[in-house]
Amino acid sequence: MWHFRLWDVQDVAVFLSITLYMCHLAKAISVHSPQRSLTRSVQENVFFSVDVSCIGIPTFQWNFMSGAVSRTIGTWRPDGDSNITLDYSSRVQAYSNGSMGLSDLRLQDGGYYVVTVTEPTGSSKDAGFVLKVNEVLYEDLQYLSVSAVVLAGLVALLMLSMWLLDKAYRKIMAWRRRKEMPENDATELQPL
Length: 192
Ligand SMILES: *[C@@H]1O[C@H](CO)[C@@H](O)[C@H](O)[C@H]1NC(C)=O
Ligand SMILES: *[C@@H]1O[C@H](CO)[C@@H](O)[C@H](O)[C@H]1NC(C)=O
Fold this sequence. Notes:
Elements: H1 2-27, E1 30-32, E2 37-41, E3 46-48, E4 51-53, E5 59-66, E6 69-76, E7 82-84, E8 92-94, E9 100-102, E10 111-118, E11 124-134, H2 138-189
Parallel strand pairs: 2-11
Antiparallel strand pairs: 1-4, 3-9, 5-6, 5-10, 6-7, 8-9, 10-11
The chain binds 2-acetamido-2-deoxy-beta-D-glucopyranose (2 copies).
The site of one 2-acetamido-2-deoxy-beta-D-glucopyranose has 7 residues, from strand 6 and strand 7.
């Protein structure tokens, strides 16, 4: 009898721990992202893609961190209730699946982006992204194109002057030949 009771207690304990483990698994929020490290150029757009699975309707909060700077970009829910910080309101696109689009990138946008997914129960999970924003070297490009134009102009000028010189040389030679011709004719004609 006592033996049976021990078995019961063990069964119950195993059953309870399995149930708790399953509950824990079900409760766990998962945040997946195909790419955690992104590189873009100034004025380009970036899309932070996340795939969230959790219980109930989650709340997404995106934060930005770079050096000593740390600020909240926005908070939203899949139903469309969203609060985007004024600084970002014109550039941020909040997606109902938690993803975020940021357009017209600036150099200062380079840094860490963290999304915090919070379930109605209060449990939450973070996922971080690294964004590198590269400067577009417009000045260098401009300098290069100006140099190319100047070089092309110089080459054209050189070719034109060579062509003119060649033409002038031919003209002078023709004129000299014409000038010599009558003398020759005269000397040749004289004996006749
Ligand atoms: C989230 O939604 C956006 C817009 O509908 C979509 O482009 C993106 O692929 C979605 N992300 C995932 C991980 O489903
Ligand atoms: C947005 O702000 C309003 C007012 O402060 C608040 O009631 C609401 O819950 C906020 N929404 C989100 C998604 O944080």
